Amino acid sequence: MSKKNREEIGTKPVLASGEEISDKKLIIAVQEGDKKAFSPLIRRYQKRLFRFIYGLVGSFDTAEDVVQETFIKAYKAIESFKTEYEFYPWLATIARNTAYNSIHREERKESLNSLQEKGYDPASTELGPFDKLLDDEGQKRFYNAVKAMPVKYRAVFSLRHFEDMDYSAIASYLKIPPGTVDSRLYRARKFLLEELKDLLMIVIFCFIMANGF
């Protein structure tokens, strides 16, 4: 495509009124010189990416930093992205590697279990059945418990329950055997049950009272 055509694309709006353009078209537009075409991709995936990264790093502030750094890296590397592939898995891989680098830096300074609580806004995004079950205080307890998990268990738990990935996909993503995924997920759930057992008892009691059992 000529330089003139690339310049024309860069001056045109990427999104037509009431129309959502596919990832592929947006990425091609960025690759052809339209820097503004990357903004819809950020808006489309930033909440989902934040959920995933928060589950890995257990810190609101760190997750925000990782997500921001991920989009910067993705933008700089967009020329190398092949549009026959899905965009989000590529983006999530960049985010995962960035998050792990952040975790390793933190582990050199202090244990993850002793990191200061940064807070979380449960209204900022939907997180599935957990937040339907728990109230605001319960959600804080839940995320603190996830944050306290060993990293290897937290990663598997986050991919399974926040990203809804199946066992084989998790195994491929983390480059571990499927049996290891199963055992780590079991240990992660066992860890949560132990951390939240008092809260779960309250939920069960309220359910029994509400239903007249």
Number of strands: 0
CATH topology of the largest domain: Rna Polymerase Sigma Factor, Chain: A
From the helix content, strand content and strand pairing, which structural class follows? mainly alpha
Nearest-angstrom radius of gyration? 20 Å
What is the mean pLDDT?
74
Helix content: 55-70%
Commentary on this structure:
- The protein is mainly α.
- It folds into two domains: 19-116, Rna Polymerase Sigma Factor, Chain: A; 126-213, Arc Repressor Mutant, subunit A (Orthogonal Bundle).
- Helices cover 69% and strands 0% of the residues.
- It contains eleven helices and no strands.
- Residues 1-17 and 108-134 have low confidence and may be disordered.
Q: What topology does this entry show?
A:
Blueprint: H1 3-11, H2 23-31, H3 38-57, H4 60-77, H5 87-109, H6 129-133, H7 136-148, H8 151-161, H9 167-174, H10 178-195, H11 197-210
Helix pairs in contact: 3-4, 3-5, 3-8, 4-5, 8-10, 9-10
How would you summarize this macromolecular structure in one to three sentences?
With 213 residues, this protein is an all-alpha fold.
List its salient traits.
mainly alpha; Rna Polymerase Sigma Factor, Chain: A; Arc Repressor Mutant, subunit A
